[in-house]
Amino acid sequence: MFKNSRIFVAGHTGLLGTALLAKLKEKGAAKIITRKHSELDLTDRGHVERFFREEKPEIVFLAAGKTGGIAASSAYPATFFHENAAMQINVIEAAQKYGVRHFVFYGSSCMYPRNSPQPIKEEYLMTGPLDEFSEAYAGAKISGVLACRAYNSQYRTNRFIAVVPNTLYGPNDHFSIENSHVFSALLRRFHEAKVLDKQEVALWGSGNPRREFIFSEDVADASIFLVENAGKLDNTHYNAGTGVDYSIRELAGIIARKIGYGGEIRWDATRPDGVSRKLLDSSRIEQLGWKPSVTIEEGLERTYKWYLENVEGAGR
Ligand SMILES: NC(=O)c1ccc[n+]([C@@H]2O[C@H](COP(=O)([O-])OP(=O)(O)OC[C@H]3O[C@@H](n4cnc5c(N)ncnc54)[C@H](OP(=O)(O)O)[C@@H]3O)[C@@H](O)[C@H]2O)c1
Q: How high is the pLDDT of residue 70?
């Protein structure tokens, strides 16, 4: 299916996009189409339309998005809403208009209500209030999931696939102070503390919230699996996680040990913790036959290796 198809990986320079390129190449994909953000702004409807008309992609992975940690998404909620909503509306409509065979959209675990029972099942969507700090981003993501459902329903197809991965980590993640997520932020903080021989690292929050982390290539693998099994999918979204979560304190311990940081970790409990737990129930995709294959130890090893090799360029 992938060998001879024209495959557009939108956002190919990002964390998920680079993982998709790697996995698709493993599958023998020879006709991958990419455009940098500077070459094709997906929020621009006219450009998107022209691109689809000229390039005629057959399979599309929408791994482009306006992403960032909670500080960025709560400081710029309008930007997060607008850019994500515009990208998905433009690309989904073009995918329909130009007959794309398979389209994959990525939701996010923050789409689910902040007080969801754990683990979070797909059907908990829109059953309660969202976390206030990420609601604009989450709102855009919910509309993307609903768009996939609506296009499948109106056009009597199963071409529009919505995957909801939990928190990704891996090579090509953001490691800058202002734009990193918890995994990459911890990795950088402990690495720098080790290099500078610091005796203490101060971290935000109590360390008690629990989070589920999935290696970027596992999400790419899940996406490809869903495309391959499109004929068996219901018209709904599919969670993709590992089924294992860690407290931030446990994760900090794992990363500090791997890096070889032996100093103190001080928790600043006056800082906000966010949602107490976000563990996805991924049994729906597992029942179809998919499961993740990268352990946190292996994923951390590969991410840290990438960070060390690209450390100068990683402060993006
Ligand atoms: N990371 C996670 O934990 C996570 C979890 C769940 C879902 N997701 C979703 O998965 C998708 C990929 O996330 P990611 O972490 O891989 O993001 P990322 O590393 O920030 O990469 C985003 C990619 O999108 C491109 N991009 C951004 N705005 C664009 C625009 N207007 N036009 C064209 N390209 C644009 C970026 O290019 P530039 O860098 O050049 O701007 C980059 O290549 C996103 O939809 C995200 O919401 C991510």
A: 79
